[in-house]
Amino acid sequence: MTRKDMARADFRSPRLHVEDALAADATIALGKPQAHYLRNVLRLEAGDPVLVFNGRDGEWRATIAGTSKRPALTVTEQTREQTAPLDLHYLFAPLKHERLDYMVQKAVEMGVSRLQPVLTRHVQMHRVNLDRMRANAIEAAEQCGILNLPAIGEPRPFDDVIAARKPERLLVFCDEGAEVKDPIAALAAARAKPSAVVPVAAAEGGQPIAVLVGPEGGFAEEERAALLKLPNLVRLSLGPRILRADTAAVAALALVQAVLGDWK
Ligand code: SAM
Questions:
Q1: With a 6 A CB cut-off, is 214 part of the ligand 1 pocket?
Q2: Which fold has domain 88-259?
Q3: Which of 13, 64, 194, 225 could form a disulfide with 203, with the two C-beta atoms 3.0–4.6 Å apart?
Q4: Interaxial angle between packed helices 97-109 and 130-143, expressed in degrees from 0 to 180 and rounded to the nearest 10
C-alpha cells in the first residue's frame, strides 16, 4: 500500500477476506462465521458497507444483502487495485501456540509473502497447525488493510531448506554472534549488486529476500556453520540483548523493510 493508498484507505468499514472472485454486482454467499460476525457482533444491517478482498482482485466495497437464512454481500465498486506481493520470505523455527499466533500476525503486517516453518535441531514444536497459521494471517490482513496473503509452507527440516535455497535470494541470518554490530550497515552492504548469483533485475527492483530466525534454544553450531558457508548471506545482529524469537521477528523484519524493503 503506497502512502497515497494509505491516506485513502478506509479503516472504518469492516474488511473481510473472501475466496470468491470479485467484480461489480457479484454476489458473495457468506458462511455462518462471517455472517454471525457481521450481523451479530458488528450489528450491521442490510445495505451497510463492508470491504472485501481475496488476494487476487484488489479491494472492493460491498453491501450487506441476502436474508438471515441466506446471508450475502453484493459487490459494488473497487476501492483499491491489487498490488504485487513483495518477495520477502520469513523462515522461522515454530514457536508454541500463542507466541506463534503473534509472530504470524506481525510477519503479515510487516509484508512477508511467505511463512516457512523450519525444523532446526533445538526447535520446540515439530508440528504446526497450518489452518491456525492461515487464520491468523487472514485476521492480520483484514485488520491492517493488507491485500496479499502470504503463502504458508509445510514445516521442513533445516537441511532441506538450506539445500533448496536459491543463491539469488539474499538470506538474512539473524545471528546474535554476528561480527558487524550495526544492522543497518550490514543490510545496506547486502543490497543487491548485479553479480553471478544476483540477476540485474533483482539488483534494480525488489530483491528476493529471506529472513531466518532461530528457535528459543538458538541454532546448533553445525547449523550456524552450514549457514556461514552460503553465498549471498548477511549475518544480522539485532542489538546487544538476546531477543525472544517472536520479538526477533518484528525487529528483523522492520530493519529489512526499512533498509531493503518497501518502507522507503
Ligand atoms: N540463544 C538464546 C537461547 O538459547 O535462548 C536465544 C535464542 S533467540 C531466543 C532465538 C533467535 O532469535 C536466535 O536464534 C536469533 O535468530 C534471534 N535473535 C535473538 N536475539 C538476537 C540478537 N541480539 N541478534 C541477532 N539475532 C537474535
A1: yes
A2: Alpha/beta knot (3.40.1280)
A3: 194
A4: 40
Q: How do residues 120-171 score in pLDDT, each as one tens digit?
A: 999 988 899 999 999 999 999 999 999 999 999 999 999 999 999 999 999 9
Considering only CA atoms, which residue is closest to atom 3 of ligand 1? 217
How are beta strands 88-92 and 114-119 bridged, if at all? Answer: parallel
**3-state DSSP assignment of residue 247:** helix
Q: What is the DSSP string of 36-102?
A: HIIIIIS---TT-EEEEE-SSS-EEEEEEEE-SSSEEEEEEEEEE---PPP-EEEEE----HHHHHH
208 lines ligand 1 (CB under 6 A): no
Question: Whose alpha carbon is nearest atom 11 of ligand 1?
Answer: 214
CB-based contact 150:138 (threshold 8 Å): no
Residue for grid cell 491489487: 82
217 lines ligand 1 (CB under 6 A): yes
User: What is the CA(205)–ligand 1 centre distance, in A?
Assistant: 30
In this predicted model, what pLDDT tens digit does every residue of 8-47 receive, in sequence order? 567 788 999 999 999 999 999 999 999 999 999 999 999 9
Burial class, 244, CB count within 10 angstroms (exposed 0-12 / middle 13-18 / buried 19+) = exposed
In eight-state DSSP terms, residue 179 is S
Run of H or E including 3? helix 3-8
Closest ligand 1 atom to 215 CA: 10
Protein residue closest via CA to atom 2 of ligand 1 = 218
- 88-259: same fold as 3-80? no
Judged on CB neighbours under 10 Å (0-12, 13-18, 19+), 107 is buried
